[in-house]
Amino acid sequence: LRASFASKAQKENDQNFNYNSQPQASYKVAVLGAAGGIGQPLALLIKMSPLVSDLHLYDIANVKGVAADISHCNTPSQVRDFTGASELANCLKDVNVVVIPAGVPRKPGMTRDDLFNINAGIVRDLVSAVADNSPDAFIQIISNPVNSTVPIAAEVLKQKGVYDPKKLFGVTTLDVVRANTFVAQRKNLKLIDVDVPVVGGHAGITILPLLSKTRPSASFTDEEIEELTVRIQNAGTEVVEAKAGAGSATLSMAYAAARFVESSLRALDGDGDVYECSYVESDLTDLPFFASRVKLGRKGVEALIPSDLQGLTDYEQKALESLKPELMASIEKGIAFAQKQA
Ligand code: NAI
């Protein structure tokens, strides 16, 4: 009796933790840069998804151990490791979603743009391989500076003749996650209910939380708006400084990216009610790329949601106008880099 009780309890624990009772796993996800600070916890969180059948982990080094370790979790997906450029094509074959956290992170005193020289080339090469091997996949770029690496990816895909703007995403979910957390704390709201759209881009003043569009609706004093906006914009730097040279946000980033991956998989699986903020090709403003709330569907971005940008407060409108030159410069820098290399 004791043995059967133990095994029943164990089974329930496993089911609760692993979501084994949830939908059938059938999607293939690749993480490029999977041995890194973000890549490892992100791979673990994706391993917990009930929607994933195959998890492909790629890095230039140290990925074998990460894959061996994660593969022991008794969740549905099969984990495989791929090391170095010669194994990249195999890693990418037939995948539905490719997440890219490959590259170097910031150290104290650095801006995201300081990473451009190294990360631009890494993203170019990885996206080029995606274009050759899984041109239909959703491509989700985490590597900074996202404001430039997404335009680089778009140019590479265009050069390869496989660009689908609906399937290229800059991952800005962490800005939303942070905004939700900080607003809930400040206003004493139930965290699970709070949703703050964050638009613009993913660096400094280009990160624009639209506090007036907070759901459930909340009122803020001018001081609160200024304090929360600045904290959300500098939250990455808060972590970089706290880590004092040991990197930037990795755990909260992995959490945020896993949420974005899971939302994408639900959309691919036919859920008609999936909305996330993401930095995508856009016609909501005069900028060619812009982060906003988007509706996700089977084919990627089903619709951009313009309503968040309507009826902005004076503070938000002014912040929107002042972020545009910086964001445009980052976009142009990315495009120029990719075109020079072509
Ligand atoms: P990390 O240095 O810990 O890991 C990066 C990994 O990329 C390493 O394992 C490295 O071997 C790998 N890598 C380097 N070149 C590669 C290549 N050509 N192909 C495949 N893998 C390669 O860095 P961390 O902390 O994981 O950050 C990764 C990136 O994510 C950075 O650019 C960082 O700025 C960015 N980031 C983005 C955020 C966002 O909100 N979008 C938030 C936090 C970080």
From TrEMBL:
Residue ranges of the Lactate/malate dehydrogenase C-terminal domain?
A: 172-337
Residue ranges of domain Lactate/malate dehydrogenase N-terminal in the record: 28-170
State one molecular function term (GO).
Answer: L-malate dehydrogenase (NAD+) activity
Coiled coil region boundaries:
none
**Which reaction does this enzyme catalyse, per its entry?**
(S)-malate + NAD(+) = oxaloacetate + NADH + H(+)
Provide the E.C. number(s) assigned to this enzyme.
1.1.1.37
A single Gene Ontology biological process assigned to it is: malate metabolic process
Highest taxon listed in the record's lineage = Eukaryota
Q: NAD as a keyword?
A: yes
The entry's cellular-component GO terms read:
cytoplasm
Which keywords describe this protein according to UniProt? NAD, Oxidoreductase, Tricarboxylic acid cycle
Oligomer and partners = Homodimer.
Q: Which family does it belong to?
A: Belongs to the LDH/MDH superfamily. MDH type 1 family.
Question: What is this protein's name?
Answer: malate dehydrogenase
Species assigned in the record: Glycine max (Soybean)
Q: Which residues of the full protein are shown?
A: 69 to 410 of 413
